[in-house]
Amino acid sequence: MLSFILRRILIAIPTILLISVFVFSLQKLLPGDPVLAMAGEERDPEVIAFLREKYRLNDPIPVQYAHWVGNAVRGDLGMSLRTNQPVLELIGEKLPVTIQLATMAMIFAMGIGIPAGILSAVRKGTVTDYVANVVALSGLSIPNFWLGIMLILLVSVKWQLLPASGYVPFADDPWRSVQVMLMPAFVLGTALAATLMRHTRSAMLTVLTSDYVRTARAKGLSERRVILKHAFRNALTPIVTLSALLFGELIAGAVLTEQIFTIPGFGKLVVDAVFNRDYAVVQGIVLVTAVGFIVMNLLADVAYVLLNPRLRSQT
Amino acid sequence: MSRAATPVTADAISARDPVLDRKPESRVWKKFRSHRSAMLGGVLVAFFVGMAILAPVLPIPDPAATDWGAVRQAPSAAHWLGTDEIGRDVLSRMIWGAQASLLAGVVSVLIAVALGVPFGIVAGYFGGWTDAVISRCTEALLAAPFLILAIALAAFLGPSLTNAMIAIGISATPLFIRLTRGQVLSVAAEDYVDGARAIGLPTRKILTRYILPNILPPVLVQATLTIATAIIAEASLSFLGLGQQPPAPSWGSMLNTAKNFLNQAPWMALWPGVAIFLVVLGFNLLGDGLRDALDPREQ
């Protein structure tokens, strides 16, 4: 197992290096000279020369890249132009907020998507199956920022049941924190629920026609036991791995959800950085998200092997 | 001799196996036509395409014309879907907004296909180092979430509809590289491709005559489904202020303004969202239907 994990880490290294090349070259896409922008209106030649030296802009591009990637490996992703804080520190501050939102969204997604997928597969071809599929497809087609706006309109403005925006740290007031996050988490979880439902349905349909399920039925086990104990447990493997792979969608969805509900998380940091032209932060976010996605992929692979006894014995 | 041979009569023709005799295209079309949800998707897409094309000739007010005497008016006979915060007609802006959304969806997918398919073909057909380099780059780009990548690119390129389309197109490219590469790997192993190589056809001809036509159906399905994703991505970028710039109408930017007036003018937020939902649903249904119709296992 350890050698399998090490092998996967080794495979991930060139991918991470390529991502770093891409993120670094994003800066080179910028029109104009960034030093001129930093030097202010006076554009003092001495200041310009100092800044060029400071940011090593006189070096050839491969040397600049090596320097940048060397710093990134040591956890130095540069400084935010707006807050003058290290980028990694800024990301570290905002990440727990998004992790709370993402966790709650995932609970919603699994709570809705998995039972709906099981029900849809068990009742294949019936009205339940049809309705579940229509709802899932609608969930995939609704832009989550619009769903958020509509929920604010109904739940907060009309019925005044939940707050429309804001954030309370979980450590300060757990109940209030969950209450404030309920609506954004539901919005973020909807599209994921639809994806999970479709995959659960497909995995269950495959498993339900297998020999061991037929045997379990032949043994006279109750249908509930056959579905939950025999079929679902075996269908769980692809579902668990898919859940890990939904990380990317969660982070991307969080950008818009946090914007609508004014949640000071990772997603809002991206948008604020974009509008403040805080490019070091944008670069840092893309790099951290991509590395996070690779780590989640790795965990998904490990989970897949751990959940599948046949693969476990091969590694 | 000729009398001994079975004459080809009308009865004999009708007695032939209808499934075997039917051309593949007509089989696909028949399957597609019988797919009710795909037809619904087609109707939805056709409706919005028609709306976008006919926008200049429809008897609707100028989408940029402001009317300070009709600010945030509820739906009425004069303004069917109401007016916005500076008195512009919501219906007119919604109809014109269809142009931006559909254009962004189609153009960004065309960019992704134009870049992704050639790279995928090269990676899949030539293999070796070329494949290794292209595949690693694809994996690296796939690691960054689609929207984050599009936001980052749009931010660096500058906010505009054209840059949003480029950003979305580039972000969707790895998807097409991976799909095409996989398809080429499977098609290149077929006997007819071996045969083409054996008779000494040049690589360019093998690629254009044998490989490309056989990998197109899954690319077409993926393109249809990606248009749906691209429309949501354009609306998201415009919502964030990185896509279509005011005063030009776009569903995403309409929603961005509407969220500030939820209490006073809820209709401003309702219709652009309904439009996005319906057109995306249309492309999703169409894509699902195409996939079923083009899948030989479903015949």
TrEMBL record, chain A:
Topological category with respect to the lipid bilayer: Multi-pass membrane protein
Taxonomic superkingdom: Bacteria
Keyword line: Cell membrane, Membrane, Transmembrane, Transmembrane helix, Transport
Ranges annotated as spanning the membrane: 9-26, 99-122, 134-157, 177-196, 235-261, 281-307
Domain ABC transmembrane type-1: 95-300
GO cellular component: plasma membrane
Subcellular location: Cell membrane
Keyword Transmembrane recorded: yes
InterPro entries: BPD_transp_1_N, MetI-like, MetI-like_sf
GO molecular function, one term: dipeptide transmembrane transporter activity
Entries under PROSITE patterns matching the protein: ABC_TM1
Family indicated by similarity: Belongs to the binding-protein-dependent transport system permease family.
Protein name (record): Dipeptide transport system permease protein DppB
Organism (species): Jannaschia rubra
From TrEMBL, chain B:
Domain of life: Bacteria
GO CC, alphabetical: plasma membrane
InterPro entries per UniProt: BP-dependent_transpt_permease, MetI-like, MetI-like_sf, OppC_N
Entry's localization field: Cell membrane
GO biological process, one term: transmembrane transport
Keywords of this entry: Cell membrane, Membrane, Transmembrane, Transmembrane helix, Transport
ABC transmembrane type-1 domain: residues covered: 98-287
Pfam families per UniProt: BPD_transp_1, OppC_N
Principal subcellular localisation of the protein: membrane
Entry similarity comment: Belongs to the binding-protein-dependent transport system permease family.
Protein name (record): Glutathione transport system permease protein GsiD
Record lineage: Bacteria, Pseudomonadati, Pseudomonadota, Alphaproteobacteria, Rhodobacterales
